[in-house]
Amino acid sequence: MKNLKKVLALVLAFACAFTMFAGAAFTDAADIQQTEAVEMLSALGVINGYTDGSFKPNDTISRAEAAKMIYTIWNGGNDNASAFAGKSVFTDVYSGHWAEGYINFCYTNGIINGKGNSKFAPDDKVTGTELAKMLLICMGYQADKSGLTGTGYTQRTNALASQNGLYDDVTAAVGEAMPRQFAAQIMYNALGADTVKWSTDANAYEKVTTTVMLGTPNSDGTFTFQTTVVNETMGKKCMDLVTTKGVLLTKVGKEDARDTYALYMSGSNKASYTRVVNDYTNLVGQNVNVMYKDNDTTKVYGVYANEDSKVVATGYVGQLAAGSSNSKIKLAGTEYNLDGNNATNMVYELNRDVNTVAVATLSSKVINDASKTPNVDGRTRNAAAGEIKLVDNTGNGKVDTVVFTPVKVGKVTAVTKTSVTIDNGVGTVKFADDTIYDGIAKGDYVRVIASDNTTQGGNHVEKLDVVNAKVEGERSGSNEVKVDGTWYKLAYDGASYVTATTGTTYNLVIVGNTVLYADETEGSIANVAFVSATEAPATVLGTNNKTVKARMYFADGTDATVTISKEAGTKLTGDVTFADNTMVTYTKLSDNTYDVEKLSASNLAGCKTFVANGSIASGATSTYYDSKISGFSIADDAVIFVKTGGAKAETKVLTGAQVKSWDKEIKDASNAVVAFNTSYLTDESNGIDYIKAATLVTGSNISVPGAADTSYAYAVTDQYTTTSTPNGEKKIAVEAWNGTETVTLYADGLSFGTTISAGKLFSYRVNGSYIEGVTVATSEAAVLGFDGKAEGEIKIQDAGVATDKTYTLAKDCVVLTVDDAKTAGMAGAGLDSIVEAGYNTAGTKRLVNISYLLDGDGKIAVIVIDAENNKMDPETPAGV
Fold this sequence. Notes:
Elements (H helix, E strand, L loop, with lengths): L34 H9 L19 H12 L25 H9 L19 H11 L4 H4 L6 H11 L16 H12 L4 E4 L4 E4 L1 E9 L5 E9 L2 H6 L1 E14 L6 E5 L7 E4 L10 E7 L2 E10 L4 E7 L3 E3 L5 E4 L2 E4 L7 E5 L3 E6 H6 L16 H4 L2 E6 L8 E5 L2 E8 L3 E4 L4 E4 L4 E2 L8 E5 L10 E4 L3 E9 L4 E4 L2 E5 L14 E7 L2 E7 L7 E7 L3 E2 L6 E9 L4 E9 L2 E2 L10 E7 L5 E5 L10 E3 L12 E2 L2 E2 L2 E12 L7 E5 H5 L16 E9 L2 E10 L12 E6 L4 E3 L8 E7 L4 E5 L14 E7 L2 E7 L2 E8 L6 E6 L6 E15 L4 E3 L23 E5 L5 E7 L14
Parallel strand pairs: 14-17, 21-23, 26-28, 32-35, 39-42, 51-54
Antiparallel strand pairs: 1-2, 3-4, 5-6, 5-8, 6-7, 8-9, 10-16, 11-12, 12-13, 14-15, 16-17, 18-19, 18-22, 19-20, 22-23, 24-25, 24-27, 25-26, 27-28, 29-31, 29-34, 30-31, 31-32, 32-33, 34-35, 36-41, 37-38, 38-39, 39-40, 41-42, 43-45, 43-47, 44-45, 45-46, 47-48, 49-50, 49-53, 50-51, 51-52, 53-54
C-alpha cells in the first residue's frame, strides 16, 4: 500500500464520533497544502483541529503531542490512555501531566526514548526525523538492529524512512520542527507502508503477511468476498484497513437524505460502496483502489487511483481528431495510442452508462444525448464543448478508457429570483434544484451539465469565459479563424457556421479549440462614421492603387475631410465606387488615411441587426415618425446622422434623445411631410430592439431639426488665429469659461461671424469640432431686485438706459460667475450668486454687475455676474 498518497482523499464515514472538526470544515482550509493527509488523520481522530474551527497547518507539534498521535494510531483511533497513567521514568513528566499515559505507553513499547538525564522534554518541538523514527518502530523495525539509536542515527533514520515512503510529498525540512500538516503527511504515508519483522534465520527483515477478506464487486453491485493473503500494512495492523485494488469506477451518486455518496463499479447500476464521505467523481473511468473496513463496504476510508491507472490527457470533443491510423487518436493536436482500435467501445458517459460508443464516433461526430447515435455534424456548439478524459488503466501507455461528459451551451436570456432561462434548447433551470454559479446575469454565456451526468443531482451551470480579440485570419474552406496566433474552428450553430471576419474584433467564447460564439465589438457604435460626400477616386502616384477623399462625420459629433485608402483591409484599386450617405466602421492608418468597411450583416458594429433601406412603418408618413425610425424605438444614446438638402443643406450628428424630441412629423416650409431615406443598426435591450445608429437623409430644403442646443460662455481672451486645431488647419479661436472649465472654441474658418473680445458673454452652437451661430451680448445691467426663484422675476437697469425693466428667468437659465477685472471664470455659480448691485461712490447710482442674453421668448437665458467685486470692469453706472 505504498501508493497511498497524492490522490488519496480519505475521510472516515463513521469517524464523526471521533473528532469534532472534519478537514473540510476547517476555517483555514485554504492554507492546508497536504489536504488528503490532514483529512484522513483528522477523521481518524489522530490529529484534531482547534475549538475556533481552524487547523493551523503551519504550527508545529510537541513531543508530547506526537506521543498521543502515535498512541491513537497504534490503538485504532482510541485516544484514551488512562490505563497507562502513573509515575513516569522521565523526571520532567510529572504525575498528572496530560500526556503521561501516552508517553508511558510509547516508552514501554520502545517507540520513544528520552533526551538523556532522564528527561523527555515533552514541550520541545518534534522534528520530522524524530516522528519518522517513532513510526518505523511501529512498523516493526528494531532500533538496535536498524541503527536508529546512537551516533549517526539521524542519517540512518532518514534513509530508512525515505526507503519506506514516509517522506513522500513532505517538503518541510525533516531535521527541524515539523509543521502540523507535514506531520500528518508522514503519518499518512506510514499507514500505507508495509510492516516488517526480524527473521533470525535470514538475519534480515521480512514483510509481514496477513489474511483479509477482500471484496470484488459484481455486476449487480453485490460483492464476492474471498480470503486473500496480502502484505500487512500499518493501516491493516492498527486500523483493520483492507484495500480492493484495480476496480473500474463508473459512477458516483449523491445518496438520498445524506451528505454522503455511493460508488458504482464496473458498470453496475447498483452501488458497490455506500456512505462515502468524499465526492470521487474526478476518478470516474479509472481503475481505483478502495480502502475500507475489513468485510464492511459501508465504512470506506478512501478511494485513490490504482498505481497502473493514469489520466493521459483531458480536453474537449472539439479537440478530437482521427489519428494517423485506426489505433491512434488525436486530442488537442497530440496523438495517443489506443489499446485496441478506434472502433472499440471504450467510451463511458460520465455517471450514466458504460462502453456504449466507439472512439471513432466521438472523434468524427458526437454522441447524441438521448439516442446515442451520431449527429450530422460534430462541430455543433454542444458537441464541441463536451469534456473528454483519456485514461490508461493498465500502465501500458495506451488509452483504454475514454470518459465523455456531454453538455449544452447557451446564453442567459432571463434571471429571476427563482430561476434562470437559457437559450439553445437548455430552457429553465432553478436555483432550488440546480447548481448555479453566484452572480449569474442576463447575457452570460454558460455551459450546462444535465442532471443525469452530475453527481450532486440537478443541472450544473458553469460560466464560460469571454475573450475580446481581433480575428487575424480566415480559412474559409475549413471554417477556421486565427486569433492571437492560434487557429480555432468555428462552431456550427445548427443553421450555419459562426461568423467571424478578418480584421474585426469580437467577444469570443472559446472552448478548447472551437469558437462557440463571436459577438462583434470593434465597431461598437463609437466606431461608426457617416460618409456624407466623396470625390472621384485619385490614383496613388506610381501604383494602381486608388484613394477617395470623403467628408466623414463621426459618432462623437466631429467631422473631417479624410482620405480613404482601404476598404475592409484591402487597398482600393481599379474602378472604385463609393456611395455617399453610407455608414461605415473605420480604422485610422499610420499614414493618416482610413480603412473603412460598410455596415452590413457581417459588420454589425457590435449590434444585432443592420438594415440598409429602412421602410415606412404601418400608419406612418415617413421613415421617421412619432419618435421612431421604421417603427423601432430609438435609444437615447443612439447616434443619428441627419443630412438635409436645398439651400439649407447641412449634416449634423444628433443623439437619439435629440431626435426623439422632434415633432411627430417633420414638415418643410410648404407644410409637406419630409421623407427621409434611412439605414440603421438595432440592438436588443430587455427584450426590445432599439435603434442604436441610423442615417436620416432627405433632399428637402430644411435645416436639421433640433440639431444643436445653444451654449453660453464668457470669453477670457480676445479671439485669435491658430493652427493648433483639430485638423491642423488655420482657424480662429477663443478661450472661454463655460461654467465648469476654460475651453478653447474654434470657428470652421477665420471668422466667428462677429468679434469676440475678452470679458464678453456670448452664445453659440456646436457643430462637430467647431462652433457657429455666435451672438455676443451687448447688454450690461445692474440688478435692482431678484426673488431668488427658478423661473423667477428679476428687475434690472441697463447702462445708458433711463428706465428699469423686469424680466422672467428662462426655465433653464444659465448663471456664470466671473472675476471680470481679471477676465477669469469662477466656479460655484447658482441662483444665489445673483445679488443686487452696489452703488457708486456718491451713492446715487447702481453699478453694472451683470451681462445677459434673452431667448426667443424674451426671457433671460443667461446671466454673467461678477462674483468677486459685484461690478463689471470698467466700473459703469446703470441708467443715464
